[in-house]
Each structure stands twice: as C-alpha cells, then as structure tokens.
Specification:
4-stranded parallel β-sheet; alpha/beta; homodimer; 7 strands; two-stranded parallel ribbon; 238 residues; 47% helix
C-alpha cells in the first residue's frame, strides 16, 4: 500500500488480504505513521497481517526483492503499458509463483490512487471490469476483488457440491424400492387411469425423484409419506 | 436483503450492487424501517438504487415473481441442497436471464445470515471460496463478490489490452527504419566486434524492441535517443 491515509483502510485491507490467504503486507509512507491503533482495530481477526506488516520509505525499496509487480488503477493513464483483468493478473501471479519468482501488487492512496512514478514500476496495470458508470471501489474492496481472483485461481472447489453432513446418497436399490412402493400404491389408488399412458407417466414421476438426488434418509422419509397417505385412504400399506 | 440491521450496510450494499450494474434492491423487514437516512448517506452515488428499493414484509412476497433464487451463506447448514460457487451462480443467473426467467439473490442479516426458513426457498446456496481459516465477509463485500462474478460473466474485456490514447502502434516499416538506424550506429561504434556473432546479436537486440510493441511516438523517441548518443560520440548522425 503506497501512502495509505486512514488507519481504518489499512486494517480493512489487511482483513481482505487474509480472506484471500495473503499475508505479506508492505506499507510505504503511511500518512499517520506505523504502527497505527486504528489499523489494528479495523483489522479485527487479521492481526497476524498487521503484526507482520513492514514499513518502507520508498516504493522502490518495498518492491526491490520482487520479480513481477502489478499495479492497480481504475484510471487509464497517459502511459503505454498493458492493462490486464484481475483474472489475468491472478494467472500471471500464480505462474510467477510456481517459477519461484516473487510477485507483488501495489495499491495507491485512497481516492487519488497511484502516481505515474509508481505505476511505471509495474509490468502491467490491473483494472477491475465494473459498471463503467459507477466503478469506484474503496481500498479494501479493490484488495478483496483482486485477492479473490488470486485465491480462486488455485481453488479446486467444484462448481456444485451437495453437502450431505453425516448422511449419504441413497443407493440405486434403495431408490428402486421406494419407487416400487410408490408405484404399487398409485396402482392401488387407480392413478394410472389409462393403461397406454402408464409407461410415460411412470417415467415422468421417476424423473422427478431421480433429479432430486435423494439421500438414504430422504428415501425413508418419502416411503413414510407414501405409507401415511395410503393408510389414510386404506391403501396396501406395504 | 433479509432483515438488514444497519442502514450503513444497506447503503454500502447498494453501492456494491451499482458497481456491478445491479439496481433492483428489495428489503425485507429492515430493522430500522424504511426509508433510512444512514442508508442513503452510505450509498453515496448509488442513490438511484436506494430510491428504487422496495420494501416487503415477508421473504415470500419479496421473491414471488422470481423463477431462480440463490441464497448466500458462509455456513453449510444441516440441509441437503446444492452448494455452488459464485462463478457457477453467475452462469446460472445469466442463463436464466437469457430465457426471460427472473432471478434473484438473497442475503441474510449481518452476522447471523439467513435462517433455514429463508435458505430453503433457494434452489442452491452460494458459498464464496475464501481462506477457510478466515472467511468472514461483510454484507457489502459479499454483494460485491457475487455481483462481480455476475458482471464479468458477460464482460468481454480482453485479458490484456494496450491503451494507446491518441497514439497508434508503429508500423513495421517505421520499426525497421529505427532498427536500421540503431544498427548503423552500432556498426559505426564497433559494437559487433566479432563478425560471426553479428547475426545473433542483431536478432537478440531486435527481439528486445520487438517485444515492447512500440508506438509511433516511442519509435521517434528511440531514434532521438540513438541520434543523441551517437552525436556525443561523433557517430554517423544519420
């Protein structure tokens, strides 16, 4: 963070970093000095990031050991330098990291952002694609969005998961027993009025329950429902 | 937003929405009533979202016209329901939207999140993959991350662009003239000491400048540099 002004913003940026598993915070000339009580208070829970933060008097010193530097800016400057998306930055950061090349992100001061003298040190500028008519982000939000892209670039969470807790999905046999039970009761209740329609109606019904991806517990619950409904009507009870 | 407590959080959530081009804010039983002065103050610039916000007394009424509902939650509940990533949610929201099926996201109250009675209304739960040891997000940050995924799902910004302002990239001919100029001066300065190495050295040098992707202005600047350096040494001056 280059010349951050409010301690609160350093603290919320530290939280956003830790949300994304990032811990190496470097501060260049924070306006109110360092350490900063307000930064610590706002960091709530991310104290480790604040504790390890390092103070530098120039941007050059802060980044001296890094091989890849990306600068974040909402504004396109009068500077011929590639502008990349947060996703592309994440890919490059991960690639550099895999090669053992230390990488860093620089963020400018609140409102005014990075000076040209700082931006020029970066190999590319990152601009977050947002509503062009309302794209202002505060410091912690900018850190969070870019950190999030970095985090998910290595995250292997499946796009969809079905959490089962202590349960398990029903086996095909359990499902079939439930469906046979339902089917028998429907026969008894004269649900399949037209013989010719029976196969299609049965398929449609089966698809409904099949799609739900039932657990063993849910299969038992449904069997209870069927038994209960049938008993009211004086069904087969099986 | 279901039962949001602080007006400030409604305001910052409205800003995060507008950042992502989202404007249809629905409020269910906000603790401090509606309208709310603090919400407006915190919305700075996103007043349009606050102005259009609608108030509902139940979650059911707030979502009655929607076809797809996704609920955001950091916690896995004792509920068998698919859990999806923000990216997957964004794809499904865009897909629903393209089919003319209205879609909505529900967010619970600060700290306690959604109740099970509200979560159950959703077709899937969204969990943001973040550092499992520190994943707490405030309301506006959660809105921003999920809104951001929604926004970029339709964004066609190239991963890398080179902004040229009023300038343009140099033509191949302009580049060649510069390189020939440099080459002549290097010959004059006896840079290519060993004849056998000349082709490789020339290729290496050319690659450096070629990789930079020079603009016409930069080519002129570099020609000036070469001319200036050569004149000090009494070069060919061409």
């Amino acid at each position: 963070l280059i010349e951050p002004q409010l301690g609160e913003n350093i603290g919320t940026a530290a939280r956003a970093m830790l949300n994304c598993g990032l811990i190496d915070l470097r501060l260049v000339r924070p306006r109110d000095g360092w350490p900063n009580r307000k930064a610590r208070a706002a960091a709530a829970g991310a104290d480790s990031v604040i504790d390890q933060a390092r103070l530098f008097s120039t941007t050059a010193e802060a980044i001296a050991d890094l091989t890849h530097i990306f600068a974040t800016t909402a504004r396109h400057r009068d500077m011929v330098k590639p502008v990349i998306t947060p996703h592309e930055a994440a890919v490059r950061l991960r690639t550099g990291d895999a090669r053992g090349e230390a990488c860093g992100l620089i963020f400018g001061r609140e409102r005014t952002g990075l000076t040209n003298d700082d931006s020029v040190r970066a190999e590319a500028l990152i601009t977050v694609p947002l509503n062009p008519r309302y794209s202002s982000l505060n410091l912690a939000q900018a850190v969070l969005l870019i950190g999030y892209e970095w985090y998910i670039a290595a995250d292997e969470t499946a796009n969809e998961t079905l959490p089962l807790g202590d349960g398990r999905l029903a086996t095909s046999g359990e499902f079939q027993e439930f469906f046979d039970h339902l089917d028998r009761e429907l026969e008894t209740a004269d649900f399949y009025k037209v013989d010719a329609m029976r196969p299609a109606m049965r398929r449609n019904l089966r698809n409904i329950f099949q799609r739900a991806g039932l657990t063993d517990q849910e299969v038992r619950t449904l069997r209870g429902v069927v038994a209960r409904l049938s008993s009211k009507r004086g069904g087969s009870g099986r």
